[in-house]
């Protein structure tokens, strides 16, 4: 019997009955692949098929295509309409464009922000200040697909990719980009390429089913993970099978309350530092619309870990939780461990004495462990 039939992350999604969709990063990759293919061959593949990090091979219909010859060079543009599935995503239906032009050999792949895509203006994000807000995994996907197209059609793979989103600046007003210092539009996001839809009731029900399946199989150790990167971390740390992995998402409270009533011997909670700092501060719903990273709280924790007032003041006014973490790492203040320990204490408080041992692992965006508690 495979993992989907028994339990685990994929079974949770199937149990919700919700249709998954595609991230802006997947759409940009598809548009880039089509545009670069046309630049080398003169023809746009439609639909265009890409390979996502977990091996899925979705096909995307092109909404727009244009191949134009400039002075001494050709430029290709392709557009894909984002389908977010059943997720109430503000970017559902947005038109994501990629414009590709050749660069001299040895230039590599250069990313530009077109209209509707933001630019990073503050530190604390996984991109340097001044860079287009195209996140690391979508960049990697686009580079990989450019390499594949180049190998197939005799290109060098040296290109400039300009990603744009129609009405992106307007859509971005409904996101947190402005507060994060991402100005001018949206971010191009996605670590798996797949948008996992979250209906609160359906997803919480799927968490409960995951616990039930794990218990019925006799497992004594399960892990609540906030996403695919944290899932990989706990598998690496503990060798847990798929059936032991609960796709917790933002619903930390749902996991803890159900495990309180249906105990397992051990529960690991693993997630991004910023998300788990919310649990440490007492929030059980980790969604950005319902709880925020409390930088003054982090500053207070850092003081307890040895931070002086100058550092604490910088943490309290940091742009993101990640920036606060990096400031502490530079000063040898164990903020990651402090957050993990506090998050564990909050989890134990919710468990109210249930016979469950809890440990917490905080990771950064790359999956590196930055705190244990």
Distance between the termini: 35 Å
Instruction: List low-pLDDT spans.
Output: 1-6
How many helices? The count is: 13
Q: What does the average pLDDT come to?
A: 89
General description of the model:
This protein is an alpha/beta fold and 373 residues long. Helix content is 38%, strand content 21%. It is built from 13 helices and 18 strands. The chain has helices at 3-6, 9-16, 24-41, 136-153, 168-171, 200-216, 228-238, 252-261, 273-280, 295-304, 309-316, 321-330, 335-351; strands at residues 21-22, 48-49, 59-60, 64-70, 73-81, 95-102, 109-113, 116-117, 119-120, 159-165, 182-183, 185-186, 194-195, 221-225, 245-247, 266-272, 357-363, 369-372. The strands form six sheets. It has a five-stranded mixed beta sheet, with helices on one face. A five-stranded mixed beta sheet has the order 15-14-16-17-18, with helices on both faces. Strand 4 and strand 5 (73-81) form a beta hairpin. The longest helix has 18 residues, at 24-41.
Layout of helices and strands:
Blueprint: H1 3-6, H2 9-16, E1 21-22, H3 24-41, E2 48-49, E3 59-60, E4 64-70, E5 73-81, E6 95-102, E7 109-113, E8 116-117, E9 119-120, H4 136-153, E10 159-165, H5 168-171, E11 182-183, E12 185-186, E13 194-195, H6 200-216, E14 221-225, H7 228-238, E15 245-247, H8 252-261, E16 266-272, H9 273-280, H10 295-304, H11 309-316, H12 321-330, H13 335-351, E17 357-363, E18 369-372
Parallel strand pairs: 7-10, 8-12, 14-15, 14-16, 16-17
Antiparallel strand pairs: 1-13, 2-3, 4-5, 5-6, 6-10, 9-11, 17-18
Helix pairs in contact: 2-6, 3-4, 6-8, 9-13, 10-11, 11-12
């Amino acid at each position: 019997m495979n993992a989907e039939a028994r339990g685990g992350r994929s079974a949770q999604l199937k149990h919700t009955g919700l249709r998954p969709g595609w991230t802006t990063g997947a759409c940009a990759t598809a548009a880039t692949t089509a545009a670069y293919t046309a630049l080398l061959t003169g023809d746009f593949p439609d639909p265009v098929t890409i390979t996502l990090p977990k091996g899925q091979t979705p096909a995307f219909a092109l909404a727009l295509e244009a191949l134009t010859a400039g002075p001494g060079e050709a430029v290709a543009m392709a557009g894909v309409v984002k389908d977010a599935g059943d997720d109430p995503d503000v970017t559902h239906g947005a038109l994501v464009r990629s414009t590709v032009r050749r660069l001299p050999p040895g230039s590599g792949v250069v990313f530009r922000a077109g209209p509707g895509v933001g630019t990073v203006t503050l530190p604390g994000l996984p991109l340097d200040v001044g860079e287009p807000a195209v996140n690391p995994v979508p960049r990697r996907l686009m580079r990989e697909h450019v390499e594949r197209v180049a190998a197939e059609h005799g290109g060098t793979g040296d290109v400039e990719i300009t990603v744009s989103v129609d009405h992106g600046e307007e859509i971005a007003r409904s996101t947190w980009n402005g507060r994060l210092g991402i100005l001018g539009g949206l971010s191009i996001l996605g670590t798996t390429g797949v948008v996992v839809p979250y209906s609160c009731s359906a997803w919480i029900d799927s968490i409960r089913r995951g616990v039930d399946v794990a218990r019925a199989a006799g497992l004594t150790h399960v892990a609540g993970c906030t996403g695919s990167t944290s899932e990989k971390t706990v598998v690496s740390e503990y060798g847990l099978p798929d059936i032991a992995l609960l796709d917790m998402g933002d619903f930390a409270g749902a996991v803890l309350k159900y495990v309180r009533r249906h105990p397992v011997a051990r529960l690991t909670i693993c997630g991004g530092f910023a998300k788990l700092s919310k649990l440490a501060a007492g929030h059980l719903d980790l969604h950005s619309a319902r709880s925020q990273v409390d930088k003054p709280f982090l500053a207070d924790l850092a003081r307890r870990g040895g931070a002086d007032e100058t550092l604490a003041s910088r943490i309290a006014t940091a742009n993101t939780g990640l920036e606060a973490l990096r400031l502490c790492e530079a000063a040898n203040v164990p903020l990651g461990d402090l957050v993990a320990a506090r998050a564990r204490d909050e989890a134990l408080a919710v468990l109210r004495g249930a016979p469950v041992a809890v440990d917490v692992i905080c990771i950064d965006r790359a999956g590196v462990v930055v705190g244990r508690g």
